[in-house]
Amino acid sequence: MRIALVTEQFSPADEPAARVTREVTTRLVADGHDVVVFACGRGQATFHGARMFWASRMTPVSAVREAMALSRPDVCHLVDPHRLGMKAAEAAERLGIPTVVLGPRGWAPGVDPADHHPGLRDEALHARWARAHAPDGGQLVAGYFGPLTKRNVLGRLATVARLPGVRLLAVGEGPGAEQLRSAGAKVVPHASGVERARCLATVDVLLQPRKRETCSPVVLEALASGVPVVAYAAGTAADVVRHERTGLLVPTERGGRAFARHVARLAASPDLRHVLSTGARESVADRTWDQAVRELVDVHYAAALPATTSGQLAAQRLP
User: Fold this and answer.
1) What is 2-109+288-317's CATH number, 3.40.50.20, 3.30.750.200, 3.40.50.2000, 3.30.870.10?
2) Strand, coil or helix: what is 131?
3) Beta bridge pairs of residue 309
4) Within the chain, which residue ranges are assigned CATH 3.40.50.2000?
5) Longest pairwise C-alpha distance within the chain
6) Rounded to a whole number, what is the distance in angstroms from the first to the last CA of the chain?
7) Tens place of pLDDT for every residue, the chain, 319 residues?
8) What angle do helix axes 270-283 and 217-224 make, rounded to 10 degrees?
């Protein structure tokens, strides 16, 4: 199948939409699909065998349409669409190419259980973060993994950082790093691969303080690591976190103080943390990235294709 993936974010790689696009692209190419990625910014001409089309805010629809006409995709998947996504949607419509836009209730990202599991937890590292040997030690380590840029997200995180008995660990970069340090947080600017997975498995709870997060792989990675999640009931978290079974969900109409109260509840109850942690890994055991991408192709992409095209592609897969 020829597939166009359209994303506003392809770098930095820790942005949720960028991570989803990279994971999906890698597996689609590995499965033999012809993939072109339309992304904002500048960069290399290819990514893991997929062709890249780089755009900016000033790129006209005509240029996007021309590039899409040259790649001739069977389907165009808009990942978390904004400006570029709207241009690609218009171009695809003019060319008669079916488009797919999936909300979190329609499709969830995957996770690789071999890369994210409780065995990566580092007790010595946790003791340092929790200040286990300090007078106020033994703190709950609450982790946030993502960019430190959005003011409302930083405000919620700072409120958590000031909770008694809680140490905030923020893994990410951005202008808000100093604000969080001033509130008492530990900020780790760079962590990737195994180091990032180790950090994630070592926190006591993952925080997802964004209210409008369409795709968030880190939520599934935390659950696979046996780490419960405190999140707003939106996006990926609303779809995969089970309230009081694998995490705590905060109504989206509530503010930062309500979010912090849910974190404080976990800090005050080791028994609740144990219950949530036990259920976390089991809840995502059947949601690998391979399964998630297979669902994209066999269910969502196939449903968008005309019946004749879908039948032809199915025939090509027969032995």
Assistant:
1) 3.40.50.20
2) coil
3) none
4) 118-283
5) 70
6) 16
7) 999 999 998 976 677 889 899 999 999 999 999 999 999 999 999 999 999 999 998 999 999 999 999 999 999 999 988 999 999 999 999 999 999 998 777 888 999 999 999 999 999 999 999 987 777 778 999 999 998 999 999 999 999 999 999 999 999 999 999 999 999 999 999 888 899 999 999 999 999 999 987 678 999 999 999 999 999 999 889 999 999 999 999 999 999 999 999 999 999 999 999 999 999 999 998 899 999 999 999 999 999 998 656 555 554 554 5
8) 110
Considering the chain, tell me which residue range(s) the CATH 3.40.50.20 domain(s) occupy.
Answer: 2-109+288-317
- DSSP-assigned states of every residue in 82-105: SHHHHHHHHHHHHHT--EEE--TT
C-alpha 156/C-alpha 7 separation (Å) is: 27
* Cβ(101)–Cβ(279) below 8 Å: no
Per-residue tokens: 224: 């696979």
Residues 221/14, Cβ–Cβ less than 8 Å: no
Task: Give the DSSP letter of residue 176.
Answer: T
Any residues with CB less than 8 A from the CB of 258 and at least 6 apart, and which? Answer: 250, 251
Question: For the CA atoms of 298, 302, 304, 307, what is the dihedral angle to 10 degrees?
Answer: -160
* CB contact at 8 A, 100 and 77: yes
Interaxial angle between packed helices 83-95 and 61-71, expressed in degrees from 0 to 180 and rounded to the nearest 10: 60
Q: Which of 71, 107, 66 is nearest to 304 (CA)?
A: 107
Confirm if 71 and 38 have CB atoms less than 8 A apart: no
Measure the CA–CA gap between 273 and 257, rounded to whole angstroms.
20
Residue tagged 């990926």 (tokens): 236
Does the domain at 118-283 match CATH 3.40.50.2000? Answer given as: yes
Radius of gyration of the chain (CA): 21
Using CB atoms within 10 Å of the CB of residue 156, give its burial: 0 to 12 exposed, 13 to 18 middle, 19+ buried: buried
